[in-house]
Amino acid sequence: MLNNLLWAALLWAPGAFAQTIPYTPPSGMLTCDLPSQDWTAFEDEEPRGRALHLLGPDNPSGSFRTGIDIHFHDPRRPGFLPVKAAVSRLRREGGPTNRVATPIKRIKVGQTLARIFQVKEARRVPLDLSPSIQENLHHYVAVVEDGEAYYTIRLSSTEDVYLDFRDAFIAFLNSFRPGDSR
Asked: Residue 135, SS3?
């Protein structure tokens, strides 16, 4: 109960991030506020749908860059997973990265309800280069339904700095609106 109240208070804190930058990607898939002018946005077409990637600052060791990834899951696309199955997959625990997920909370995002949770895991980064180092990663995840379709929104950062970006993620969710052109 206390955790729900904390999320609600954070979501509706007035002026939480006054330095945000309004943003709509070229496709019009959504509108949102970038956390600050230091964040870079780029849009990508992926096999399962559109994605928007927001790149923030590097962590102190320079091994991982904080980012927010937004994926639109279109039921007309091959490989579409219904939202319940997708949430189960995103929260899957164990495996080689020792993933651990928190319980799901329901919060209001825009004009709809979202399912939010956190995932922690240990990974070698960068994954495709050597040498790599072991980093403890922390993900805030929100799944926002839009009819049969849905968006997954994930803030990823290292464990040592994730609290520095929690308010930015909450402000991002407050500003998030599904677009007309997906």
From this structure: strand
User: What distance in Å separates the CA atoms of residue 111 and residue 55, rounded to the nearest whole number?
Assistant: 26
Question: pLDDT in tens for each of the 182 residues of the chain?
Answer: 445 544 444 444 433 444 789 999 999 999 999 998 889 999 999 887 889 999 999 988 888 999 999 999 999 988 899 999 999 999 999 888 899 999 999 999 878 889 999 999 998 887 777 778 889 999 999 999 998 999 999 999 999 999 999 999 999 999 999 987 55
Query: Computed from CA positions of residues 55, 57, 60, 62, in that sequence, does the dihedral angle turn out positive or negative?
Result: positive
CA distance 106 to 112: 10
Helix (H, G, I), strand (E, B) or coil at 94: strand
The 10 Å CB-count burial string (b at 16+, else e) for 30-44 is bbbbbbeeebebeee
For residues 170 and 64, give the distance between their C-alpha atoms in angstroms, rounded to a whole number.
21
pTM listed for this prediction? 0.85
Q: Bin 6: left if φ > 0, else alpha if -120 < ψ < 50, else beta.
A: alpha
Residue 174's identity, in one-letter code, is N
Asked whether the beta carbons of 168 and 17 are under 8 A apart, the reply is yes
